[in-house]
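Researcher: For the record, we're logging two predictions in this thread. I'll number them. Prediction 1 follows.
Model: Prediction 1, sequence and structure:
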Amino acid sequence: MKSWLVPLAALVFGTAAHAAQPLLSPAELQPLLEQESVRVIDIRPPADYAAGHVPEALNAPYGSWRGPAENPGELPELSKLTALIQGLGLTPESHAVIVSSGANATDFGAAARVYWTLKVLGLSELSILNGGTQAWAAAQLPLAQNAVTVQASAYQPQLDTTLIATRDEVVQRTQNGGATLLDARPKSFFEGETRHTAATVPGTLPGAVNLEHDAWFQPGTSTFVTPDEARKIAGDSPFSFQQETVSFCNTGHWAATNWFALSEVVGQPNVKLYAGSMVDWTHAPEALPMDNVPGRAKQLMIDAKLWAESVRN
């Protein structure tokens, strides 16, 4: 491991940022359910929630935390997010525990994105149930089927912009080299072999490096690795954390996992998420520079393949 990767100051920073553990096992979560300040947020679809959920969990499906179809990575309007977290009874004193299905690494990204959103909204006592509902059920812990409601809060959040990288900021970073631009997508996206359906051009940000979002999980599972293993993964990666890190992907979903791993688990300071990511970048009014952009013929082949897939689906 690179000796500079996780200096003591960074570890202290990561620990002091929140008293709650960023990852909880089912056994660690169960006794917390008795605490009044704990709010379990189940982000699965309503039908899955109704079929069985962690006791006392509130349902707030992932789609309610996302932006419009043309750019789902965008943060919703602050007024919408305010109504959402007030309806969940959340305040800065709450300990919010996000629960997803636990199906795979991509599913974890949904929990990480909601965790990041809550932190942007001023909450610091945050955790993710490691392995999601599947891990809870596998531990033979009880599942409830009743719909849970709580008294709404009056909390009025303000956006913590230190966690957000805007398009304009990323443009500046590509020009002055003031950040590590970290692409969380699978290699095929990074190398311009395909693109998100809402993006207009395949490729990646100029000077970006690739660390796929699923590197942080125990092989073949949706279980996040231990903090020691996460530090080793970060230390073995071919880039430096001695400057600001901007995590991005297609729509800020996979990138949320890299942000969570580095900021919350490894304890690296100054990690931001570019929420709109490559969809936002390729929809800029004027074309912005990119790396790994294929030729026109290859782009037409990608377009045709994506169209055929959309027809089949």
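Researcher: Logged. Prediction 2.
Model: Prediction 2, sequence and structure:
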Amino acid sequence: MKRLTGLFIVMAIVVGAGSAAAQGTGLVGKGIKAGLAYYTFTGADKEIGGVAPDLEPGLAVGAFVTLALGPGLDLQPEILYVQKGAQYESNGYTFTFDLDYLEIPILLKYRLGTGGGVRPSLFAGPAFAIKLKAEGTESGPGGSETVDYGDQTNALDVGLAFGAGLGIPAGANLVTFDARYTLGLTDWPDPADVDEELSMKNSGWLVMAGITF
């Protein structure tokens, strides 16, 4: 509960910053984006029964605001729905973890100067995620079965995101593309509700396109 309270405080600060910027103190853009997520588990206990996890494809969609901090430097808070998880395959059976989150990356963005209209950038920052769903599905010759892991999954997931982006002017708008890797910093299994403490983290890639208004 304390972690969720802290996260909502961060959200309130971000919203407040966006409101202030809208009054002429730094807002340079706002927009929407969507793309693909490719996540897996990292950490000392990522293997299950000696089987290493594969990437699990998913979706990512959300919105963002961009606040100018100074020459070439922006702050970009985002709110994203991200599908994370991992997939294990062994002896004709597939076990898929589906972990869905409401993620709030707060990115520090450095714009690289160019002589043309294309606007490349580099960015990095923390990503705070609130658990929405946690399920596991086993599929095999005999059919499939889904198990709810909500009670065994931490409510808050924290990572460090870093990547690169590209903005292309399109009339009065800006079409954006970005790719990032989010390194998981916290274990998603809740130690209070599993038999032993497990080092398993959500880490993966997001590739997204968007438009800035």
